[in-house]
Amino acid sequence: PTYYRPRVVEFLKRQRSGVDHVMLSEPLLDFMEKIKLDSTPALFVFGPDGRLVQRFDNDHAESDDDAFTMEQVEAAVRKLLK
């Protein structure tokens, strides 16, 4: 959401990092099938070398209690920043 944009941009500047916005060139469901993603939301954390470090999705969550949390995502990113 646009509400978070200024905070995210400021954080990325402090980390000397950035985010590429990627537009899909194929239908969403085809893309989701290609990356083996059954549901959204999903977050992908990449390391400085561009390799996928961790994928967060709720494909196997049976309830809200099983869903990934932003705290888990933040912990993964903080680990990379050390």
Word description of this protein:
The structure is a single chain. The chain is α+β, with helices and mostly antiparallel strands. Helices cover 35% and strands 13% of the residues. It has 3 helices and 2 strands, in the order ααββα. The protein has helices at residues 5-14, 28-34, 70-81, and strands at 42-46, 52-57. The protein has a two-stranded antiparallel ribbon. A hairpin with a 5-residue loop joins strand 1 and strand 2 (52-57). The model has no long low-confidence stretch (mean pLDDT 87).
Structural class: alpha+beta
Could you list the spans in which at least 5 consecutive residues all have pLDDT below 50? none
Shape: globular
Strand content: 5-15%
Alpha carbon gyration radius: 14 Å
Tell me the total number of β-strands: 2
Determine the N-to-C terminus distance.
Answer: 28 Å
Proportion in helices: 25-40%
Number of helices: 3
Q: Quick check: average pLDDT?
A: 87
Query: How do the strands line up in the largest sheet?
Result: 1-2
Helices and strands, in order, run as HHEEH
Architecture blueprint of SSEs:
Elements: H1 5-14, H2 28-34, E1 42-46, E2 52-57, H3 70-81
Antiparallel strand pairs: 1-2
Key features of this structure:
13% strand, alpha+beta, 82 residues
Brief summary:
The chain is α+β, with helices and mostly antiparallel strands. It contains three helices and two strands, in the order H-H-E-E-H. A hairpin with a 5-residue loop joins strand 1 and strand 2 (52-57).
